[in-house]
UniProtKB/TrEMBL annotation:
This is RRP12-like protein.
């Protein structure tokens, strides 16, 4: 086995992913079971093969359409677990990262709903940071939308939302735009 490339993921992960997908798609087992699976996925999502990351992402977005506050919160935590781990392109291709970002705008809570808005902002921040880590070009294309969204959240009248959106903008400007500026400077010199 010397000289061979190690597998990108544990050989059991496809089976675990299929089990989780089955549980998420099963409506007969109830919300409690779904919440347990989401808690598991929060910690292992970034270890799964990319085909299963795609399917589970679609399942999470489908679950979020139920408009169940607890399920939506757990789905956002699961996405956060994926993005904050900075998965490689082999696990989360940049196009899929961008698609998830775009899809999550459909689930943006109202600015008057403080806790869900702050959770959503945190997930979006990590999604953009992960995208910048893997593709500055795609990040540059998608970044104006979140910056515009954050500036709109300043109008919410909720101090926590204004503070959260300011923090997200600061991090994205420092880590995404800053990285883009450094890259441009290194190319010019």
């Amino acid at each position: 086995m010397k000289g061979e490339n190690p597998p990108q993921y544990h050989p059991a992960t496809p089976y675990i992913a299929k089990f989780c997908i089955g549980q998420l798609d099963s409506e007969s087992d109830g919300i409690t079971n779904v919440l347990h699976v989401l808690a598991l996925l929060k910690d292992i999502f970034h270890h799964l093969p990319k085909i299963h990351v795609k399917t589970i992402s679609e399942s999470l977005l489908k679950l979020m359409t139920m408009k169940n506050v607890l399920v939506t919160s757990c789905c956002l935590q699961t996405f956060h677990g994926l993005f904050v781990s900075r998965p490689s392109e082999a696990i989360l291709p940049v196009q899929r990262n961008g698609q998830i970002i775009t899809a999550l705008y459909d689930y943006q809570p109202p600015a008057t709903d403080t806790q869900p808005t702050l959770a959503w902002l945190t997930v979006m921040q990590e999604a953009y940071l992960n995208l910048a880590h893997n593709s500055l070009n795609l990040c540059a294309v998608l970044l104006p939308r979140i910056l515009n969204t954050c500036s709109q959240l300043w109008l919410s009248g909720k101090s926590e939302v204004m503070s959260g959106s300011s923090h997200t903008m600061k991090i994205l400007l420092q880590d995404c735009v800053g990285k883009m500026c450094e890259t441009k400077k290194s190319i010019e010199t």
